[in-house]
């Protein structure tokens, strides 16, 4: 089995003095394959996320085209994501602050 010398600094090592660790080529290859797999999965998910973001942007554009205020739609969506208790508390604080400044 081929051995490969690999730098693997641990938490107690300084950047100036990393210790060398010997691992088998098979282990390094397997680790590299796993790393490549993670990277490829993340890249695919990033592509999916961009596609979904484009779809959402398109829907907001459609809503705007029909006369809806996109800023208000975003606020409604944000409010709906919140727990009702959290939302009620936030509304109470908003009212309190507004009355405190005379609004």
List keywords for this structure.
10% strand; 103 residues; mainly alpha; disordered N terminus; 3 helices; two-stranded antiparallel sheet; single chain
Helicity level, as a percent range?
55-70%
Assembly state: single chain
Overall mean pLDDT: 84
The largest sheet is: 2 strands, antiparallel
Indicate the low-confidence ranges by residue numbers. Answer: 1-7
- In terms of DSSP E residues, the strand content is 5-15%
Number of helices: 3
Structural class, from secondary structure content? mainly alpha
What is the overall silhouette?
elongated
- Rounded to an integer, what's the Rg over CA atoms? 27 Å
- Count of DSSP strands: 2
Give the CA-CA distance, first to last residue: 78 Å
Major beta sheet, strand line-up: 1-2
| Strand/helix succession | EEHHH
Kindly describe this structure.
This protein is mainly α. It has a domain at 1-49. It is 68% helix and 10% strand. It contains three helices and two strands, in the order ββααα. The chain has helices at 25-65, 70-81, 84-100; strands spanning 3-7, 20-24. Strands 1-2 form a two-stranded antiparallel sheet. The longest helix has 41 residues, at 25-65. It is elongated and about 70 Å long. The model is unreliable at 1-7 (pLDDT under 50).
């Amino acid at each position: 089995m081929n051995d490969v010398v690999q730098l693997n600094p641990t938490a107690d090592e300084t950047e100036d003095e990393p210790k060398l660790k010997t691992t088998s080529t098979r282990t390094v290859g397997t680790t590299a394959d796993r790393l490549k797999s993670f990277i490829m999965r993340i890249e695919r998910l990033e592509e999916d996320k961009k596609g979904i973001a484009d779809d959402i942007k398109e829907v907001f554009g459609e809503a705007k085209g029909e006369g809806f205020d996109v800023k208000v739609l975003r606020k409604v969506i944000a409010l709906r994501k919140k727990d009702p208790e959290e939302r009620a508390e936030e509304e109470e604080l908003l009212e309190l602050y507004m009355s405190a400044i005379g609004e």
